[in-house]
Amino acid sequence: MRRGVRVAAILIAAATALGALTGCFPTDRPAPDRTPVAVGVPPELTSYYAQDIDWQACAGGGEGSFYCASVTAPVDYADPDAGDLDLALIVRVASGESMGSLLVNPGGPGASGVDLVRGSATFAVGGELLEHYDVVGFDPRGVGASTAVRCLDAPEMDEYLFSVPAAERGTAAWEAELTERDRAFADACEAGSDGILPHITTVNAARDMDLLRGVLGDRQLHYLGYSYGAFLGATYAELFPERVGRMVLDGGIDPSVPGVEIGARQAVGFESALRAYLASCLSGGGEEPCPFDGPVETALAQLGDALAAVDAAPLTATDGRALNADAMVMGIVSALYSERLWPALTTALTAVLEGDADPMFFLVDSYYNRADGEYLDNSTEAFSAYNCMDYPPDSAAEVDAAEALIDEQAPTFAPYWSGVDLCASWPYPPTGTRGEISAEGADPILLIGTTNDPATPYEWSAALAGQLSSGILLTRVGEGHLGFNKGDDCIDRAVEAYFIDGTTPPDDIRCE
């Protein structure tokens, strides 16, 4: 069964578009120059924590001084002599007096923090925090400009993602065809990744964050994590509670639920977001006429018919790719991350009903970060690598429960959401576990949950806030993925006061 969709994947494309990179290398402020902190680390790791950063001026979107660098980390923290890997960094230096480093992760797993900050540091953390912190974007191990997972070239990736199976959906032959495709993909990842696959885990990425904290000269980690980045931050807090500084986790993931339930809950979340989109579409609020008739139930049935139609007879885009139901679902999902993309979804759905696949593939490509036939990052490969190592196998009962949940609460997506599990073909068994995270002893941690967030449903943030011994929940009532820096003054003020002044809300907050 499919484990679910990436979380916060569209942050990168949006940040890059907003940043309008100019290629200039401003140097009005020098790079951070602080003494590494190697206190309290095992002797075999001291040399890693004590390394100096060789910052080099580099381009960044928007105003400010940007510097790039690379830090060396052990491939295997249990055996540092087994080899090293590189972690890519970018810093946007504080425009005022710096309070230290603020690490930011955009999610995924597999999204690039370097690209996020390079594209637009303002989009990444908001304008107020740029004055007070050196904002650090990093590519986790296996991702982007760090030592990366490598699997397929662009034409091969197109074939893997978009080729339409010859067998009928749901048959044994269909499953066999997808399984063979997954095996070839997994074998390519093993062949192209220089032995790092078994070490591409969230626990190791969290250990890398502590290494970065030490190398950057900070005694505590100040951190802003989005979606999967919230899970990464919570994992860090569990490993190093005494080193948690000011930490905000936006769009949390419940670490206690089975992997298969993650995907099922996302299906339900996107079905809910789809209903909200269709209600808006049918109300006539958009610039284009809605391609469906009301009420919402009727529109859902018409959309279901459209999905079935393209699945039976895929549309061919101008670049030759076939739009079947799987690709169309990914396009719809991509647009449901944010209300800003709802007009583009109306355009794409109207075009599909008229036999034109190109606008829908525009949305599909925004999900996969693909442009002009090329993939701009390795997020799809890294997403697979992390998930296959992080999630233990699901039991038959867990799979059955997830399937029943999707059928009952996400009927539009249900016929196309479940499939063959890539991780069954992965060359290494998973090492991750599922369980509650309490991070006993950590300073207060803020959790942000949006009530109709499709990718990280609100109940996950609420659950994680309840599990963390020092968790405080900020509720944003609204649509779309994530809550901070989305135009909600109530949320933004609370986060900024926490990061800048250390003001902790006395209790949970609900922002209507």
Mind explaining what this structure looks like?
The protein is an alpha/beta fold. The protein has 2 domains: 10-145 and 204-255 and 438-511, Alpha/Beta hydrolase fold, catalytic domain (Rossmann fold, 3-Layer(aba) Sandwich), CATH 3.40.50.1820; 151-192 and 257-434, no CATH class. 42% of the residues lie in helices and 14% in strands. The chain has 19 helices and 14 strands. The protein has helices at residues 10-19, 46-49, 113-119, 121-125, 127-132, 154-162, 172-192, 202-215, 228-239, 259-282, 296-312, 325-335, 342-353, 358-368, 379-390, 396-409, 414-417, 458-467, 489-501, and strands at 56-57, 66-74, 84-92, 101-105, 134-138, 221-226, 244-250, 315-316, 322-323, 370-371, 374-375, 445-452, 471-479, 509-511. A 10-stranded mixed beta sheet has the order 1-2-3-5-4-6-7-12-13-14, sandwiched between helices. It has a two-stranded antiparallel sheet with strand order 8-9. A two-stranded antiparallel ribbon has the order 10-11. Helix 19 (489-501) links the parallel strand 13 and strand 14. The radius of gyration is 22 Å and the shape is globular. The relative contact order is 0.14. The model is unreliable at 12-24 (pLDDT under 50).
